[in-house]
Amino acid sequence: MNIENNIAEKPGYQRRTGFWIIVSALIVFTILYLFASLAAPVKKIHQLNAAFNDSIRPDLLDKTYPVPENTALFELYRKKIFLESRLAMAKTNTIGLVVDLQDSILDIEIGGIKLHSTHISKYRISRTFGRIDNKAFIGLFSKPMTTVSNSGTFVKEPIVVKKAPKDTIEAAKQATAPDSIKTGPAFVVLTLDYNIRLSLYQENKSSVWTMLYGFIFRSGMRFRQAGGTVRDAVTLRIPDYRTEIRVFVPKKDLITIYRALPVDTRVVIKI
Amino acid sequence: MLNNFFQKISLWAGRLSVKELKNRKYFKYIKVGLWVISFIILYVYIFQLIPDYTASLFVPKQKADTLSEENQNIRRLTKTTENSIRNLTRKFAGLSSNSTYIVINTTANEFYLYRNQKIIRHGTCSTGSYILLESGDEQKWIFKTPKGQFRIQGKTTSPVWIKPDWAFVEEGLPVPPQNHESRYERGVLGDYALSLGHGYLIHGTLYQRFLGLPVTHGCIRLNDEDLDAVYHSLSIGSRVFIY
Description:
The structure holds two protein chains of two kinds. In chain A, helix 2 (13-49) crosses helix 8 (208-234). Helices cover 48% and strands 21% of the residues of chain A. In chain A, strand 1 (96-100) and strand 2 (105-110) form a beta hairpin. By secondary structure, chain A is α+β, with helices and mostly antiparallel strands. By secondary structure, chain B is an alpha+beta fold. Helices cover 38% and strands 23% of the residues of chain B. In chain B, the strands form four sheets. Chain B has a five-stranded mixed sheet, covered by helices on one side. In chain B, strands 7-10-11-12 form a four-stranded mixed sheet, covered by helices on one side. The radius of gyration of chain B is 33 Å and the shape is flat. The two termini of chain B are 61 Å apart. The model of chain B has no long low-confidence stretch (mean pLDDT 87). At the A-B interface, helix 2, helix 5, strand 3, strand 6 and helix 7 of A face helix 3, helix 4, strand 1, strand 4 and helix 5 of B.
């Protein structure tokens, strides 16, 4: 009894116990978090592989694109599905976005007519795209993708609210010379089908402020993603991994292109 | 070891001696703060970068087909696919017509006039100002140029502007009856006007110094020379692309 009491009263004993409980909980949480993070892209690859079977008329795709495992044939199929996607988008008669990573071109088109084109200075794509089956690749990119949501660091429509003047004197006071629209650093994120994220970033032309702004913008997205992973890790679920295609284009063109896109933009991608 | 590391950082940051630091109350909080920052960097940045690189370890790459090019089936399929690609390219090229059309960039306030898929003229214009006018009786008008594909529906020389209600509301004037003579204004739309439908026009302007800026109520304004060229190049039914 005396020995037990002595142990319990020993200074720092309770603090040490608490410390080790916290450390153990952190270790368990870290293992769960790490497992969830690593399992997510694997789950995503399997989900994308199923895209072929989810596509409209998979039997027709199978017939139209036989033996996609053959490397030379697959390269031809990639060109073919790109043209077919663009033709399908042209039929919708709305402004659509075309991302051609092979030729490094980003443009907007309507009815097959190119409206505005810009050069992609650099791009990055998730490695998960390199791991999906050729068949799945065809199923995924053989038709235009739809934008599920979009966000940017500048307004799409710079609306200014003006109250109608009561008389001509008030109207004369309101009259001002217009100013050109100025925006801060430009970053846009479009979320497409299958939770594929298309990020359009302005080129970082040696401006520290732009780089910092970009870092803060990306950090915001990482925090949100981490929050989702924590929630799923704690509830023992595998989070939905966001495969990303990130392209860098001139700021002026990025603003022009983003402002031209309708709400449910169709996107055609050539990887 | 970690404690020493944190002490060194705190020393560098605060230039205090170790003894002074340990005596200060906030040393504990600095330590906790540094731990929190380390965890944030670990969970938010490092753990999120790793999966993309390690996914390839867990999912094997699909085996490429090693059939020889000599295989007749593959050669036949290759030829068929190449023909399909040629047909699709031709089909796509057919969408880009050889007729004359105009493309208007509302962000940069520029226009491009095309003939046979080549630019024959380009210049500045003015498009919608994105002003939302709110009147006292809860009526609202938004002055923006619509985006998409349109066709020229009418061409007019010496057009007369028939002022809509917002033109009076904006000036603080009372709105007159529909056929009142104050609704008709001559000379403000330039020498020509091309109608796109729903009240939107391509026309001239008295305010040439504002060309290149978003100042209109939705219409597209050009200077006199450009307007002349566009009017004589486009016909009724010609396409107008606005983005």
